[in-house]
Amino acid sequence: MVELNILPRPPISANPTNLAYGRRGLVYDNQVKAETDALYERVRGVISSLEWPAFAPLIAAINRLKKERDAVILAHNYMTAEIFNCVGDFRGDSLGLAREAANVSAKVIVQAGVHFMAETSKILSPDKTVLIPSLEAGCSLAASITGEDVALIKQKHPGIPVVTYVNTTAEVKAQSDICCTSSNAIQVVETIARQWGVDQVILLPDEYLAKNVAAQTKIKILAWGGKCEVHERFTPDDIAEIRASHSGAVILAHPECPPDVVAASDFTGSTGAMSDYVEFHKPKKVVLITECSMSDNVAVANPDVEFIKPCNLCPHMKMITLEAIYDALLNLRHEVVLDPVVSARAKKAVDAMLALPPAPAGIFDPTRPVPANLEII
Ligand code: 13P
Ligand code: SF4
């Protein structure tokens, strides 16, 4: 199990802001209603009017606290609709959020996402206070490999560049030559192989992402056996059932899904690429083969598209709630703290990725088989 680099802070009980909110209480009164009515209009298609009075007081309080703290919230596409749409300042996939984190001018960044995303923000903005609202927001991929594992792999395979998915700890990134996300993995693999003049690349730690990338490139991929506990559960039978019961639905899959699921789908791309696909093509009916909440968020922006929602929740993403965000801002916890040497080394790998031009979307061609020369190391 990988250790989380977090210093929990005790609550600041004497803080005047704390007392003010304690006295006011978080109730759905006329002031909160006036402050949040416009936000409810945005999400009324996915949040019922019965649920809203429970969310609205926290949303209003968080939005006030953000101003007091000079804070911004970076919200991943897997956040629930009330977080993503009502308190998120920047929204998107892990690459988009990393780009925002590098340019944020506010003093405090609250990561509405999982821990590796908060670490990436801290790596890119080391002078900012970066908060992760829940200590339990981990990731099965990030937990699958350590910095020592990568050091050993490099010893065994000298001269081969190491590409690591951003879904890893800072220690793993620090051992890498370049990072990638699901938006740009093929482009990163091909670029680094060309730069190093080699025909093979180590791509860690997601086995299925590595296989899906290997199907799209002539570069030999040396892969690790990590899996996303959400995407590994989808099967080709699920896709066949969806096709049988929802004729005409367009099926979009995330590249962390097994290759036979990708092969059975119509399009594969990052959460951002799936969202752009719906925005651009406006299919009548669509299925997102990924985490549950994403469909609600894309539905808010595309009310005329019908979403069929196969539901696999990421338990880590779901640790981030409005309550946890409110608590994080109120008490400035849990602050992400990184070893400066590790952080500086990890930054080189993240910066190398961010220096690349935007990758073309939709480059996972589902008809290409996984080549036999992929090796699990
Ligand atoms: P994206 O980079 O596509 O946003 O994916 C992040 C993630 O955790 C997917 O499971
Ligand atoms: Fe990690 Fe999978 Fe959750 Fe994404 S969905 S954070 S890869 S466990």
Describe what this molecule looks like in 3D.
This protein has helices spanning 16-24, 30-43, 52-69, 81-86, 94-103, 115-124, 147-156, 170-174, 185-196, 207-214, 236-245, 259-264, 271-281, 293-301, 322-331, 340-354; strands at 6-7, 71-76, 90-92, 108-112, 129-131, 162-165, 178-180, 200-204, 220-223, 250-253, 267-268, 285-289, 306-308, 335-336, 375-376. It is α/β, with parallel strands linked by helices. It has 16 helices and 15 strands. It has a five-stranded parallel beta sheet with strand order 7-6-8-9-15. It has a four-stranded parallel beta sheet with strand order 3-2-4-5, sandwiched between helices. Helix 3 packs parallel to helix 15. It folds into three domains: 2-139 and 316-338, 3-Layer(aba) Sandwich (Rossmann fold), CATH 3.40.50.10800; 142-228 and 340-376, 3-Layer(aba) Sandwich (Rossmann fold), CATH 3.40.50; 231-308, NadA-like (Rossmann fold). It starts with 5 loop residues before the first strand and ends with a strand. 1,3-dihydroxyacetonephosphate binds at residues 77, 93-95, 167, 181-182, 228, 256, 270-271. The site of iron/sulfur cluster (SF4) has 13 residues, from loops.
